């Protein structure tokens, strides 16, 4: 069966329902799945989303396939936003129920929870936050880092952050061996320069992309911008943390294909899947150079993308 897709030097983006592509991939073939599927919000979005009551039934077949295609040392990073109970200023528990389902029924292991802090997130729902003012702005979303085993491949030395000024002063001054009131034992090696600080499980980044080739191209062409773009920092963190160059990264709900773009930049092979043809078509702009833009819009030269009709490159 042929699939509509485009290719770059490292990856393939399919226009298809994700379940069709996932079901044709080999067992134990993918190093990392990182994705942000439509959330179970209390109102419908134009890109489509299941409601809270049916969300687990909707997403479970995708997750079953994801577990099958993951390598034993592979990882599944799932960004899932919270939601409000319809008509009530109380929070839905759907994302917690989903996590329990993934671990208790599908056999995933929860390696760690991460939290995405989005400082650019708008205050909502307006009724409770802006009008009645009985709730505050919800600016944090969950990212569940899941594995097939207790020990998926990961190295925090690949995601170190710059030291703070205080830590740099401490490294320069040195420390004496001591025992803190908390019981932690501080050794002299605590002040050794190890290349950076170990990051927390809080990732701060906005999704207010403003001057990319993708956005400029859509504006020039008069096309609609994807309303829920995945910020590049999220896939970048997990790709660096959980994979090595030439590993295979997959996003089954690719949207504007931020994951594929970041994987390409980091020298990873990638597969992206998006069933909305307009989003899939526009995602090609992620891979254009600025000099390929034209005043009257954006074109997609055949030298840049080969629109092929052939079998899956990683199929069974």
Quick one: overall form? globular
Strand composition percent: 15-25%
The profile of the biggest β sheet is:
9 strands, mixed
CATH topology heading of the largest domain: Rossmann fold
How do the SSEs run, as a string of H and E? EEHEHEHEHEHEEEHHEHEHEE
CATH hierarchy class name of the largest domain: Alpha Beta
What is the helix tally? 9
Structural class by SSE content: alpha/beta
Mean pLDDT reading? 84
User: What's the CATH architecture of the largest domain?
Assistant: 3-Layer(aba) Sandwich
Q: How are the strands ordered across the major sheet?
A: 1-2-11-10-3-4-6-5-9
Rg on CA atoms, Å = 21 Å
Uncertain runs are 290-316
Distance between the termini: 12 Å
The CATH homologous superfamily of the largest domain corresponds to Vaccinia Virus protein VP39
Number of domains: 2
């Amino acid at each position: 069966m042929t699939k509509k897709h485009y290719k770059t030097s490292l990856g393939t983006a399919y226009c298809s329902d994700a379940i069709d592509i996932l079901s044709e991939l080999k067992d134990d073939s993918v190093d990392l799945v990182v994705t942000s599927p439509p959330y179970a919000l209390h109102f419908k979005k134009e890109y489509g989303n299941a409601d809270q009551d049916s969300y687990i039934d909707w997403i479970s077949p995708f997750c079953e396939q994801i577990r099958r295609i993951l390598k034993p040392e592979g990882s599944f990073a799932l960004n899932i936003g919270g939601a409000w109970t319809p008509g009530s200023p109380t929070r839905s528990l759907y994302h917690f129920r989903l996590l329990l389902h993934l671990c208790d029924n599908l056999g995933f292991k929860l390696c760690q929870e991460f939290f995405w802090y989005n400082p650019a997130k708008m205050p909502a729902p307006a009724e409770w936050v802006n009008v009645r003012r009985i709730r505050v702005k919800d600016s944090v979303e969950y990212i569940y880092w899941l594995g097939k085993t207790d020990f998926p491949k990961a190295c925090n030395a690949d995601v170190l952050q710059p030291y703070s000024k205080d830590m740099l002063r401490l490294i320069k001054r040195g420390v004496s061996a001591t025992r803190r009131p908390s019981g932690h034992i501080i050794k002299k090696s605590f002040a050794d320069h190890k290349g950076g600080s170990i990051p927390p499980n809080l990732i701060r980044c906005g999704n207010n992309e403003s001057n990319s080739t993708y956005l400029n191209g859509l504006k020039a062409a008069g096309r609609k911008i994807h309303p829920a773009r995945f910020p590049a920092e999220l896939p970048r963190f997990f790709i660096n943390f959980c994979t090595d160059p030439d590993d295979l990264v997959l996003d089954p709900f690719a949207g504007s294909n931020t994951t594929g773009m970041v994987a390409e930049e980091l020298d990873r092979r990638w597969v992206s899947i998006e069933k909305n043809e307009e989003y899939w078509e526009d995602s090609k702009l992620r891979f254009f150079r600025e000099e390929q833009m034209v005043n009257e819009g954006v074109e997609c030269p055949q030298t840049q993308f080969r629109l092929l009709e052939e079998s899956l490159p990683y199929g069974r």
